[in-house]
TrEMBL record:
It comes from Donghicola eburneus. PROSITE patterns: 2FE2S_FER_1, 2FE2S_FER_2, TAT. The lineage of its organism: Bacteria, Pseudomonadati, Pseudomonadota, Alphaproteobacteria, Rhodobacterales. Keywords: 2Fe-2S, Iron, Iron-sulfur, Metal-binding, Oxidoreductase, Signal. This is Putative xanthine dehydrogenase YagT iron-sulfur-binding subunit. Transmembrane segments: none annotated. Residues 1-33 form the signal peptide. GO terms for cellular component: periplasmic space. Residues 47-123 form the 2Fe-2S ferredoxin-type domain. InterPro entries: 2Fe-2S-bd, 2Fe-2S-bd_dom_sf, 2Fe-2S_ferredoxin-like_sf, 2Fe-2S_ferredoxin-type, 2Fe2S_fd_BS, Aldehyde_Oxdr_Iron-Sulfur, Beta-grasp_dom_sf, TAT_signal. The gene is yagT. It comes from the Bacteria. One of its GO terms (molecular function) is metal ion binding.
Amino acid sequence: MSPPIDFVIRRRTFLAGTAAGALAAGLTTQAQAQSQTAKSPAGPDTTTVRLTVNGTAQEVTVDNRTTLLDVLREDLKLTGTKKGCDHGQCGACTCTVNGSRVNSCLSLAVMHEGDEVETIEGIGTPQAMDPMQTAFVKFDGFQCGYCTPGQIQSARAVIEEIRAGIPSHVTGDLNSEIQITDEEIRERMSGNICRCGAYANILAAITEVAEQGTAGEDI
């Protein structure tokens, strides 16, 4: 027969056990409350967005998490705008919104209610190319061609930004007219990556269009 156990409840042991129990109960209650909150969405999951793309009015109902890039490619079937890194690092998805270039993979579609969006499909056709498209062909500014739509959209915007007096990190005298130099073009195009390495040809194409003064103009 085992000897009797001499068990004594001390005040410190009792209080420690009570505190631990209360903490556990509190955490359980908090977890249950969070679970109930998660099951009750704050608002609708989808939104109907009205925007103008390449001059055509569009209306799409999308999941609120959908990017502008996915709306262009998946909903509107404008696949010229490419999905490269999907992290805003390669520039393949560049298009313009209200005249300013954006990485469409980082921009939610619901942010663009009433906006005017232009993609590569909206600036020219094989029969009537935009001057920048013509220059890219002339100077062989592409090889595999995957980054080319974003490169062209960005290149057109670069020239307009310089003409509008918008400085870059390499702009020197902010009180004088910004010159369209190789350094300015390289800096402003640095967000568009060409894995084929056709940078010299791209620079030549942009420079010719800038010198002709035809960026953004229709042929």
